């Protein structure tokens, strides 16, 4: 049987298993409601900084640098709890979000669309409206 | 500004962006409570089969094959909703779980441990007990 009783799964020590590129996925949920807000990636430094500062800090795989969530938009995520999954290859953090939005498109959550019932390709929007207008929040990248 | 108003982010068509290895991460949450249960991966075939059959089907990157959740344990996941995130590189499904457990270790959720407050490495267990005993549910692999 796969790994039952192993230290990774049953132990009390955080030993995150970063992938070949040195990152681990992180699911970010609302500390109050448990709603999934976003998924991003952390490297060792981002995870350490998140734990040390209490501010959600990710690693941008495209820009190849650390990224303190909200540093530009102001929608900072205060970390209330850090969890890890059974085989320690995924992190979950529970956060309180300043301003109440975590998606750069303007919605509370990045998961603002769902498949229409009965369709295999057509999406419908979940939230009645955006929390903010990204054109007013983000500076032009000129 | 990155991609605001793009078809991927604002459109109504599911266009999942599988990674270089042909997979996409999937967050699985309880349809009733929204609690995160597990994270696994899907390839195109697993996603199509999940949508077509209504039973959560993943792709095992280690065993390199499709995997209908619960096919061995009986803890089948009935899919109530399929969501996608803003840049369509992550799937989220809302499921009802037969038997009430989604982690092979025996807990309701794979995220059964959290960092102890104030510690950067010591974990504590979240749930008072397991839902099932994996030694009684899984057959020996011999």
UniProtKB/TrEMBL annotation, chains A, B:
- Species whose genome carries this gene: Methylacidimicrobium cyclopophantes
Its gene is hisI
Q: Which residues form the Phosphoribosyl-AMP cyclohydrolase domain?
A: 38-112
**Protein name in the entry:** Phosphoribosyl-AMP cyclohydrolase
How does this protein assemble? Homodimer.
**Domain of life of the organism encoding this protein:** Bacteria
Positions contributing to Mg(2+) binding: 85, 87, 89
Keywords of this protein's UniProt record, alphabetized? Amino-acid biosynthesis, Cytoplasm, Histidine biosynthesis, Hydrolase, Magnesium, Metal-binding, Zinc
| Localization per record | Cytoplasm
Family assignment from sequence similarity: In the C-terminal section; belongs to the PRA-PH family.
């Amino acid at each position: 049987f796969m790994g039952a009783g192993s230290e990774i799964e049953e132990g009390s020590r955080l030993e995150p298993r970063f992938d070949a590129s040195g990152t681990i996925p992180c699911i970010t949920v609302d500390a109050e409601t448990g709603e999934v807000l976003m998924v991003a990636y952390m490297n060792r430094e981002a995870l350490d900084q998140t734990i040390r500062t209490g501010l959600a800090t990710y690693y941008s795989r495209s820009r190849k640098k650390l990224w303190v969530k909200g540093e530009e938009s102001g929608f900072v995520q205060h970390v209330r709890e850090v969890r890890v999954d059974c085989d320690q290859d995924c992190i979950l953090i529970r956060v309180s979000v300043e301003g109440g939005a975590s998606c750069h498109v303007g919605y509370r959550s990045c998961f603002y669309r769902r498949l229409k019932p009965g369709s295999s390709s057509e999406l419908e929007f979940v939230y009645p409206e955006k929390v903010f207008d990204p054109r007013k929040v983000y500076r032009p990248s000129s």
